[in-house]
Specification:
By secondary structure, this protein is of the alpha+beta class. The protein has a single domain, classed as Gcn5-related N-acetyltransferase (GNAT) (Aminopeptidase). Helix content is about 20%, strand content about 30%. The protein has 4 helices and 9 strands. Strand 3 and strand 4 form a beta hairpin. It binds coenzyme A. Coenzyme A binds next to strand 4, helix 3 and helix 4.
Length: about 170
């Protein structure tokens, strides 16, 4: 029997991908996205080199993930995950999970220690994220503490970080 589900592949972002990625994010998050705290941290910063990936079916871009290097309480080695977006026509096929897994693996290989994001625990816990203990890590804007999540790329890394998150030029 032939499989009717097209297969996606995870690939590094290409130079011409920006318009498709902007379109996906605008559709998913709307104009209010620029006011979100996570966007504010990323403002004016390039995503970490080598940490921007796409999901593609044939050559069509159907998903995107980016990570930004951050310092937490002045300590480097952190990443902020986002934005992550999947074309709704291709949702629920594992592309989001595959993009996260690729990013966490490459981030670990690059020497990063902790990945933060603002999102739903019920989605991200299967990728190793947990709720940050309230008050331990602070973002420069309002965030529901139940949605501030972290994944350790090095066991115990969450215990090494506390304080305010800021964009960082490098992992250190
Ligand atoms: C959230 C999103 C990235 C998921 O991508 P995806 O490729 O559809 O997800 P996957 O195929 O990896 O996983 C699908 C599973 O996640 C679940 N899921 C999807 N969104 C969820 C959410 N917000 N909360 C909890 N579970 C969620 C699905 O129900 C499905 O569950 P199942 O495996 O038990 O059937 C995608 O739906 C999306 O782009 N949404 C809009 C933008 C967004 O919310 N981005 C994340 C911001 S934090």
């Amino acid at each position: 029997m032939q499989d009717s589900q097209p297969v996606f592949s995870i690939q590094p972002e290409r130079a011409g991908d920006e318009p498709d990625i902007v379109r996906l994010n605008a559709r998913a998050f709307g104009p209010g996205r620029f006011a979100r705290t996570a966007y504010r941290i990323r403002e004016g910063l390039e995503p970490a080199p080598g940490l921007r990936f796409t999901a593609r079916i044939d050559d069509r871009l159907v998903g995107s993930i980016r990570f930004t290097a951050v310092a937490i309480g002045g300590a480097v080695g952190g990443l902020l995950l986002g934005p992550l977006v999947i074309d709704p026509d291709y949702a629920g096929r594992g592309a989001g999970r595959a993009l996260i897994d690729r990013g966490l693996g490459v981030g670990r290989d690059e020497g990063y220690r902790l990945v933060l994001l603002v999102g739903d625990l019920s989605y991200y816990e299967r990728c190793g994220f947990q709720v940050v203990p309230p008050g331990r890590i602070l973002l420069p804007g309002p965030v529901d503490p139940a949605r501030l999540l972290a994944a350790e790329l090095v066991p115990g890394a969450l215990g090494d970080y506390a304080g305010l998150v800021r964009g960082s030029a490098a992992r250190g």
